[in-house]
Amino acid sequence: MEETLGRACIERLKEELVPAMGCTEPIAVAYAAALAKKTLGALPERAEIEVSGNILKNVKSVIVPHTGGLRGVESAAAAGFVAGEADRELEVLSSVPESDYPRIAQYLKSTPLPVREAQGGCVFDIGIRAFGGEHSSFVRITGHHTNVVRVEKDGEVLLNRTESGEAGEEADILTVRGIVEFVNEGDLSEVREALERQIEYNTAICNEGLKNDWGARVGKTLLNAFGDDIHNRAKAWAAAGSDARMNGCPLPVVVVSGSGNQGITASVPVIAYARHLHVPHEKLLKALALSDLVTIHLKSGIGRLSAYCGAVSAGAGAAAGICYLHGGGVDEISHTIVNTIAVDSGMVCDGAKSSCAAKIACAVEAGLMGFELYRAGGQFYGGDGIVEKGVENTIRNVGELASKGMRETDEEIIRLMLK
């Protein structure tokens, strides 16, 4: 294994496997608002909010945690202004007491917080200008959820960084073969704590989704309708985590590629299969690292936000991890990934909301089908649709489909949602 590749794998896992409380797009809005308030030095009397269409799409329908059930950009900003802790970034709302819910609702009702769509062309863009008395502040986040590129106070620039897209261009050097080699030969000690936290947090929110009634109860429904065999359990557990998360559950999740839903999808099915197979804990950690890295690799050509449902990439990552638990090597894992994305690469993202849980179940199902197909001697070949010979070529095709081919689809989805 090349030292450079091994270092890239470690750095990507360290960057990506971070905790977040709530859907990451409204949380990013709340983070920007909290930072704008901190810079202003007072609770804003009014604010102007400008976000890209994809932020509008992903914030519109999901419940902002610790707000008493509020939804939308204005609600996320109000929560950040009233009760957010900017220093905690994606856990900005994690310590909001229930006693603050009425304050947030009243502030939202009484404070002008106009929202407009940004026209700068950046898919991930949040700008908040806050006003209090004769003073003002401005915060802009672009590219990814915590990438603060500009901070102003009374027109004075306090921070100005070159805008960047995805965090960590080193993702471009990842390959499926390199990821498998890293997992087999590399040292996970630097990311062990993050992987252990991924197991703890993401399992906890799935248990919550199964215990109580959240959203459409997709996870519970799957178990009640189709039983508790491992195939269905892996789907149901992952869906239950999203049931809770999309509907305001105040439990943290360890994200992957900036998404809690992708973090749940990439990890929980692997955890379920590891328990079912009674594998050693160290092998579970290796399988999780592989699943996370495959998800990151698939997403690197797609971008943080698009019309392409990110659960598809995470479902392929989970299938790769499950294949590894069964003893799969580079060839078996590569074919599993190709089979998975050949099946499910048409699923669109129409924002964060309750139905994400059902899409996660579909993505996990596609991954399990891809794995079982290859185990049974079946596979899809180059020339079958967007499948091209070689896993890296197929991954590249998916990235181009999602980032270029689906731009108009993305615009139409946003138009339909916001009309």
What is the helix tally?
16
The percentage helix is 55-70%
According to CATH, what is the topology of the largest domain? Answer: 2-methylcitrate dehydratase PrpD
Global outline = globular
Q: Can you tell me the residue ranges where pLDDT is under 50 for at least 5 consecutive residues?
A: 166-171
Provide the number of structural domains: 2
CATH architecture of the largest domain: Orthogonal Bundle
Q: SS-based structural class? A: alpha+beta
Proportion of beta-strand residues: 5-15%
Cα(first) to Cα(last) distance is: 52 Å
Compact summary:
The chain is of the alpha+beta class. It folds into 2 domains: 24-160, 60s Ribosomal Protein L30, Chain: A (2-Layer Sandwich), CATH 3.30.1330; 174-418, Orthogonal Bundle (2-methylcitrate dehydratase PrpD). Helices cover 55% and strands 10% of the residues.
Describe the protein.
With 419 residues, the chain is α+β, with helices and mostly antiparallel strands. The protein has 2 domains: 24-160, 60s Ribosomal Protein L30, Chain: A (2-Layer Sandwich), CATH 3.30.1330; 174-418, 2-methylcitrate dehydratase PrpD, CATH 1.10.4100. Helix content is 55%, strand content 10%. The chain has 16 helices and 8 strands. The protein has helices at 3-16, 24-40, 53-59, 73-83, 101-110, 176-185, 192-211, 218-226, 230-246, 260-277, 281-300, 310-325, 330-344, 356-375, 391-405, 407-418; strands at 19-21, 46-51, 115-117, 125-132, 135-142, 148-153, 156-160, 252-254. The chain has a 6-stranded mixed beta sheet. A hairpin with a 2-residue loop joins strand 4 (125-132) and strand 5. Helix 1 packs across helix 11 (281-300), helix 12 (310-325) runs antiparallel to helix 13 and helix 13 packs across helix 14. The protein is globular and about 70 Å long. The model is unreliable at 166-171 (pLDDT under 50).
